[in-house]
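Chapter summary example.
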Amino acid sequence: MKLKPTKQNHGFTIIEIMIVLAIAGLIMAIVFLAVPALRRSANNTQRKNDAANILALVNEYASNQGGAIPTEICYTAGPPSTVSVGGGASCPASNAVSTNVSGQITTVNIAATVPATLPTLNTSTLWIFGTATCSNANTVAAGSSSRSVAAYYGIEPATVNLCQGS
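The structure predicted for these 166 residues follows.
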């Protein structure tokens, strides 16, 4: 008796294909949700570093000028962006200290004292206040020393404010 050869199927079943597609879709969803959070975290880290660098420049300038904070902070768009701290129009090189920043902060403002109402912040604006301290990480207050300087800026989500003091 001769056996009839059987036909063998070498393809995938529809169930196997559906399982593979479901797993691939799950991986894509996880990546799609994780990337914006990672980008936001990286941008916030750059903002914190930029604010610290600019605050250090203001302190260096104040040390060189007998405690006086600068009247002007110049920002040159990059990348890398350049921040110069000086005492006159357009931050002349002979009277300025400079550093490169990432460009996460695009506007730098300076005030001699803390205003009665703090400015509304966004993620691209940095405020430098003279005679100021950080009463906590989110609030800047008038300081007791004329040599104290605080940086006040926003991070993402844009409703969160941060303060760094010197």
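To summarize the output: The first strand starts at residue 72 and ends at 76.
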